[in-house]
Specification:
heterodimer, A: about 260 residues, mainly alpha, 10 helices, B: about 350 residues, Serine Threonine Protein Phosphatase 5, Tetratricopeptide repeat, two-stranded antiparallel sheet, 2 strands
Chain lengths: ~260, ~350
């Protein structure tokens, strides 16, 4: 029964994603760029593939993430705005099921996007004769999928706390600045005083460190770097689940108290 | 729409067309890439460190990316020490170490600072070990406040302990980055120079075309004339048996003559921009880089050597005397002068 309800809510997300044209545009432009990049021959030289691989892997991650941020941030505000949440919740549908169904829907759409990009990436690499490191690519994909889960749940929480535009903006900024913040905090931590150190430590535990889900560098230089040990993947999966569960739980608690 | 609005739009359209016809992007000479002083300022900026690869302009970002490529993705903090002198490599690569032809055991130390160069033991080896201790962007476990998160970071990203000797790839895969950086900033001479070094390993003609493009955008760059001269020498050597220069080979001689012209032009432009000796001693760090001085020394040495090789002994002697006065620290040129001296 719950599975069916989850599926129905998730299907609603997919149908909406198909109806919304901007998602198409984002995915198609990215696909076009990846395909075009595979055709570029710098100075007419063959066999140069690292630039293609690096740019494509970053583009894939960026395009999928932004697609998911837009899609996830819109889910709950849109339901309230169009009042479609009322007939939905009038049925015997628990609010938790509703949120988890939405989460699975957006996550599924993100995985679909990433899968599409991945196919184009693999096709482009093969057409260039570039090496593919299957285990590293699989691990990269797994980490990216886990990252999407964290992003979806984070955007759900943001969209409940603030309005749609602010949720998209905050979600994008947190994603984009996550890596820069970690680098910066590592640099200044040694010279920071007690209070600042506390703030830095807090942010590193409260905000997810998205660059940990990116294995693109090792995929590009896969000739010298091996696959990750299983315990690293297990810890990363735990890390993603922990953040995702925390965000969803918070979203649910706020959503539950919200008057319809 | 009112008639006056339509007239305004047409006028605006004409104005835009007129202005855009006057736009010449390649005449823009700004940007931080060219000026050492700007680079030094950026490297001391806290914001620059915070933003990592976005600390300077797009062109610098691509240049920094080449370092990541060369270190197999390991990210190091910006550092002033360049891993190697490409001019030095180019001298060996183009065979200028054997320009005399007959003397295969000739000293390789031609007009450049040998201490900055690679160990000769590594020639032909795709990987180079380096002992310089540079700081990685991801800190060591002792310095990382994130405990297990830091450990995960070091496992997931390419990382090596700073003290360990790290491998340096001699990887032509960096070539696209030089294309991008010179497109972003056509006045980035070093991008053309180092880019051509990498391209010539795959295709000398493509490298020559790249340098020609660089010269069109930077017609007074002595570094690019130096590079063009070296490429001409490489072409000449590739025509001879076992890479040797044959006096009877007209095509080879024509290319050497072109190279001589390039070195001469390079020396003239170099003298126009190289600060006076007393200024160099005071403000060498901001006005004239070590790379430029290495290139300047290479230019005059190669010109003198080539004049001698072509048979203009008197001209070679005259030039050696002149440039020994200009560059009193140029040991190789002084040795050459002693060899040629009366």
């Amino acid at each position: 029964m719950i599975c069916r309800q989850l599926f129905l809510v998730a299907r609603g997300v997919w149908l909406e994603a198909i109806r919304r044209k901007e998602i198409y545009v984002m995915v198609l432009i990215s696909c076009g760029l990846i395909a075009a990049l595979a055709q570029v021959r710098f100075f007419g030289l063959e066999s140069l593939s690292k630039f293609y691989r690096e740019t494509t892997l970053h583009l894939m991650s960026l395009a999928t993430t932004f697609t998911v941020i837009v899609l996830a941030s819109r889910q709950l505000p849109r339901e309230f705005e169009t009042r479609s949440i009322y007939p939905l919740l009038a049925r015997p549908l628990h609010r938790g099921t509703f949120i988890v169904g939405k989460l699975l829907g957006v996550w599924g759409a993100g995985i679909f996007c990433f899968g599409l990009f991945l196919m184009i990436y693999i096709f482009g690499s093969l057409s260039m004769g570039a090496p593919i490191y299957p285990m590293l690519l699989l691990q990269h994909s797994l980490l990216q999928v886990e990252m999407l889960l964290v992003i979806v749940s984070m955007c759900f929480l943001l969209s409940i706390l603030v309005n749609l535009d602010a949720a998209i903006t905050f979600g994008s900024l947190i994603y984009l600045l996550s890596s820069a913040w970690v680098t910066f905090s590592n640099q200044i931590y040694g010279s920071a005083d007690g209070m600042l150190r506390f703030v830095i430590r807090m942010t590193s535990w409260v905000l997810p460190q998205f660059m940990l889900f990116d294995l693109s560098e090792k995929n590009v230089h896969g000739d010298v770097w091996g696959a990750l040990p299983w315990w690293v993947l297990a810890q990363m999966t735990g890390y993603a689940l922990l953040f995702s569960a925390g965000y969803i739980l918070l979203s649910f608690m706020i959503f539950k108290r919200r008057e319809l | 729409m009112k008639k006056t609005d339509l007239i305004k739009i047409i006028l605006l359209w004409c104005l835009v067309a007129l202005l855009s016809a006057k736009v010449q992007p390649r005449t823009y000479t700004g940007g931080t890439s060219q000026r050492l002083q700007s680079k030094a300022e950026v490297k001391q900026s806290a914001l620059g460190i915070m933003l990592g690869e976005f600390r300077t302009n797009l062109s610098d970002m691509f240049y920094m990316q080449t370092e990541n490529f060369m270190h197999y993705g390991v990210a190091f903090l910006p550092h002033n020490h360049e891993e190697h002198s490409h001019t030095s490599d180019m001298l060996t690569d183009t065979g200028m170490a054997h320009i005399e032809g007959e003397d295969e055991t000739h000293d390789h130390d031609h007009g450049h600072d040998h201490e900055r160069d690679h160990d000769d033991d590594h020639d032909g080896d795709p990987h180079h070990d380096h002992e310089h201790e540079v700081i990685t962007v991801i800190p060591t476990a002792e310095k990382d406040y994130r405990s297990w998160l830091g450990n995960l970071h070091r496992q997931i990203k390419p990382w090596q302990a700073p003290g360990e000797s790290h491998q340096l790839a001699r990887d032509v895969e960096v070539v696209p980055l030089f294309r991008m950086m010179t497109l972003a900033d056509p006045h980035y001479v070093r991008g053309y120079q180092v880019g051509a070094f990498w391209i010539q390993q795959l295709d000398v003609s493509a490298a020559a075309d790249f340098i020609e493009e660089g010269l069109q955008n930077n017609p007074h760059s002595f570094e690019l004339y130096l590079m063009r001269g070296l490429l001409n020498v490489k072409k000449a050597r590739s025509m001879g048996e076992q890479g040797l220069i044959d006096n009877g080979n007209a095509a080879q001689q024509a290319l050497l003559e072109c190279a001589r012209g390039d070195f001469q032009q390079a020396a003239e432009y170099m003298m126009q921009v190289r600060p006076a000796l007393e200024v160099l001693e005071d403000e060498a760090q901001t006005l004239w880089s070590d790379d430029q001085e290495t290139d300047a020394m290479a230019v005059v040495y190669l010109w003198v050597t080539l004049e001698k090789r072509i048979g203009n002994e008197a001209r070679a002697l005259e030039l050696a005397e002149k440039y020994c006065r200009v560059m009193p620290d140029h040991k190789q040129l002084h040795v050459l002068l002693q060899e040629m001296g009366p």
